[in-house]
Backbone:
């Protein structure tokens, strides 16, 4: 794991404690080593200003992080306030790094708190996304079912229109243009006309909707006209309930002509639903990805996962690999008592966050009140002619701006509190049913779920699956498992390094 370090020392520290940049840097490096990070670059801010725009190294560090975001896993700092003096800038920076998948780790502060805070955001983000996917998969499931039953669920192509039947379902029916479609296929089937010629002929016959030879090709490639339903989810065609405009024989012949050879013209499916673990499963020996394939037996075909590096000879029956994978998921499903603890910790964090927010809110409200009083006072000063009009306008403008900024922050604080118990319940359900969710999901969702839980993939050595990195959520659950660790800071009280 690679990390970068950012150091900055405030003048006050330097003056009072003699704490130098050098010792800050050494401590950061030590922390990196202890936590298994390899430091690729160190950024040292020598200026004293804490203003973001004056800090060239910060800018350079951010540029470097963006450029190398795939490699870097952590940004190590002495204290969170090294990043920015005020909390909201700090949070914004930490959040930006976390968007780059870079964790910000403080040497002197408790990173668990920070991690739990991140956890909340992470959960809300990734699970909300997951729920959306779930919804859209349900829709897709419905559409798949309809397709299997012979109904087309997309807009009608030229030559057809959607007509609602008495049953309440919609069915394709031919329009006045349907005859041109039949003619297009008949012309193409002869195999003697260029596509531009066919377009010209059809136009001459009065087919106004045909645009170009590209358009013609799309028409000729569309199996709907042969009464067939073909969508990317299925390898095979399904018979539609709607009337065909050409025979299947003519359609297939035209496909062969378009291909320039006789193939069935079925496009290859990228995500093979037979082998959901391809893409995430890698070989423990050579780190190559696995592919899935059907091996021919005497009477039957057998599904296998195999390392792409043929020399590796790392191949295993699908059943064993997936069984192992499901077991891994089951291991990640937390026990009930841990879930309860998890809920407690989250609620704790949330309540203390909320308390902080409320404190900040009342402070801001007090400050606004003071500003308003000040505004009244300077109005009096104008009346007493202590201030001229220009000075008055200037000061008034400044106060109005200050009030506005504070009001915006109050607004922000009020909208951040959402339905936390609902969210936690959803997370608990989700986490305790990982394996079931995976088993019952379709191919798209399976792969999304895999990526969510194992962002860096899983390794298979021929017998067992293993993983080094799980989603931060599961990492945190592991921490909660040993609550003592949360109470003591990572490195104890004593400074690790004396100079
Ligand atoms: Zn291999």
Residues:
């Amino acid at each position: 794991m690679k990390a970068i370090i950012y150091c900055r020392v405030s003048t006050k520290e330097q003056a009072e404690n003699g704490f130098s940049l050098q010792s800050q840097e050494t401590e950061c490096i030590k922390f990196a080593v202890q936590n298994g990070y390899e430091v690729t670059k160190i950024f040292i801010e020598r200026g004293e200003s804490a203003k973001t725009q004056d800090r060239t190294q910060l800018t350079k560090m951010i540029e470097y992080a963006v450029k190398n975001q795939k490699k870097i896993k952590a940004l190590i700092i002495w204290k969170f306030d090294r990043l920015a003096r005020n909390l909201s800038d700090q949070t914004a920076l930490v959040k930006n790094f976390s968007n780059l998948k870079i964790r910000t780790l403080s040497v002197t502060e408790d990173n668990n708190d920070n991690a739990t805070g991140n956890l909340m955001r992470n959960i809300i983000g990734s699970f909300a996304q997951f729920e959306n996917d779930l919804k859209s998969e349900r829709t897709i499931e419905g559409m798949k079912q309809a397709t299997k039953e012979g109904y087309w669920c997309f807009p009608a192509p030229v030559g057809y229109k959607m007509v609602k039947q008495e049953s309440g379902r919609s069915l394709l029916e031919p329009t006045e243009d349907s005859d041109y479609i039949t003619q297009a296929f008949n012309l193409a089937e002869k195999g003697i006309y260029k596509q531009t010629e066919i377009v010209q002929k059809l136009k001459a016959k009065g087919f106004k909707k045909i645009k170009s030879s590209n358009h013609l090709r799309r028409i000729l490639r569309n199996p709907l006209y042969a009464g067939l339903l073909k969508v990317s989810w299925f390898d095979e065609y399904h018979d539609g309930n709607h009337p065909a405009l050409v025979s299947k024989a003519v359609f297939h012949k035209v496909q062969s002509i378009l291909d320039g050879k006789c193939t069935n013209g079925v496009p290859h499916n990228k995500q093979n639903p037979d082998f959901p673990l391809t893409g995430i499963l890698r070989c423990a020996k050579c780190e190559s990805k696995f592919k899935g394939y059907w091996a021919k037996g005497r009477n039957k075909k057998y599904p296998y996962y195999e390392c792409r590096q043929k020399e590796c000879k790392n191949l295993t029956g699908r059943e064993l690999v997936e069984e192992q994978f499901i077991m891994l998921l089951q291991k990640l499903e937390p026990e009930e008592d841990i879930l309860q603890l998890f809920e407690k910790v989250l609620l704790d964090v949330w309540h203390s966050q909320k308390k902080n927010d409320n404190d900040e809110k009342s402070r801001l409200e007090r400050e606004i009140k003071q500003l308003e009083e000040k505004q009244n006072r300077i109005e009096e000063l104008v009346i007493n002619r202590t201030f001229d009009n220009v000075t008055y306008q200037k000061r008034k403008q400044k106060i109005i701006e200050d009030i506005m900024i504070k009001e915006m922050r109050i607004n922000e604080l009020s909208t951040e509190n959402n339905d936390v118990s609902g969210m936690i319940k959803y997370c608990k359900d989700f986490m305790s049913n990982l394996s079931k969710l995976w088993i019952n999901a379709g191919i798209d969702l399976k792969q999304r779920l895999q990526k969510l839980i194992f962002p860096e993939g899983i390794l298979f050595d021929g017998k067992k699956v293993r993983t080094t990195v799980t989603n931060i959520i599961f990492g945190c659950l592991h921490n909660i498992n040993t609550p003592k660790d949360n109470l003591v800071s990572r490195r104890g009280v004593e400074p690790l390094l004396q100079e």
Notes: The longest strand covers residues 38-45. The pocket of zinc ion is lined by residues 283, 285-286, 288, 307, 309, 312, 314 (CB under 6 Å).
